[in-house]
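Protein modeling request. Please complete all fields; requests missing the sequence field cannot be processed.
Requester role: graduate student
Desired output: 3D structure, token encoding
Chains: 1
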Amino acid sequence: MIAQPIRIGSRGSRLARTQAAWVQEALEKRGLSAAISIIKTTGDKILDVPLAMVGGKGLFVKEIEEALLAGEIDLAVHSMKDVPTAIPEQLLLSAITRREDPRDVLISRQGIPFSALPASATVGTSSLRRQSQLRAHRADLRYLPLRGNLDTRLKKISDGACDAIVLAAAGLHRLHWKGQITEYLSPEVSLPAIGQGALGLECRRDDAITRDRIAFLNDPETACCVAAERALLRRLSGGCQTPIAGYATLSQGLLTLTGLVASLDGTTLLRASQTGAPETPESLGVAVAETLLAQGASILLAALCSNDPNHLNPT
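Delivered output (315 residues):
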């Protein structure tokens, strides 16, 4: 009896298709058949409105999860930074792949680094997390909304719509576009998004066959770090659209997590770091969140949520 191909669900952007193809190739190297099904998500359809106004990054996974629940696909490939902390009970993030470079990067029209951009230069990014942190370092720059896939965003540089844009390094690396990068931003300047650089492989909880087939793609170190980051986000989020960042590393048997909560204008940046045991990453995430709340993050969160009638997900 020939095993049925694993049906992989993916968004239709070039980056999403590249990521799904990487998973497909890895499966096929194991002798497993796999086919990719492209699913257009709400987030892909609404390109002229900031995510903060239309429902947050969960809009990039909703339709794909619905296809999983309906049995139309067996496996979803997500960028972990797009996955809400709450997923349907019937689904499971069964594998987290080895992380690509998690940093944010700057691409500028004239190859000028962030610190040297002239006053009033325009920087494109729709991420509130990025905007708030960058404003804290350069309040003299103009920050413009920037939606669309990587091709569309890069075109904003070539056509002169922006002097610079800020993107995730991971996507540019996966598309072999490293040559476009002007500067890698350190976590001290722009702490990454929760899960940035990692891929999440989601399947149905009761689908033991698919779970077994993809188990080899799980990277325990990345999964540990992402678990700590998502626990931080889960404890902090409160359901509102808030500039929250978190980045965990595992070194010499110790797990270190740095978390950040910021005001939208970047005038308040709360940061906390703690180290703990890798066996209990969720506990570390909650501990860092509690430290931030004690510093006043609860006040920031409450103020931002009160101004957010839609109670959106953080980015």
